[in-house]
Amino acid sequence: MVNDPSLAKGARKVKRRGVTGVKTLTYRVTYTNGKATDRKLLSEVVTRKPVARVIAIGTKRKRQCDPNYSGACVPITSDVDCAGGSGNGPGYVQGPVRVVGSDIYDLDRDGDGIACDS
User: To the nearest whole number, what is the mean pLDDT of the chain?
Assistant: First the structure.
C-alpha cells in the first residue's frame, strides 16, 4: 500500500494489479511395473515472475471552509486575505464572497456585505 495525496482521505484505488507467478518444474520419474517409484527434480524455471499488487490509500484532507462566508470557500486558517491584494495570507480567497456571519478576517473593507469585490 502507498499513500496518495490526490485521493480523498481513506479512499482506496488499485494502482497496479497483482499477477501470480508461474514456476515450471521438470522431474525425471522412474516407473517400475507401471507405478512411479522414484522422482527427481531436474530443473526449476520461473516462467512468469509474480507482480505485487499496489493499492493507493488517499491522504488528501477535505478542504474546510469558514461558515461565516458563502459564494467561495474561505479557508479556515490563522489569516485570510483577498487574492491579488496586498495581504500576506497564509490563506487567500478569490472574491466576491458574501459575508453571512462575522467577518472574522476583515475581508469586507467597505462593510457592504460583499468581501473581496474590488
Answer: 92
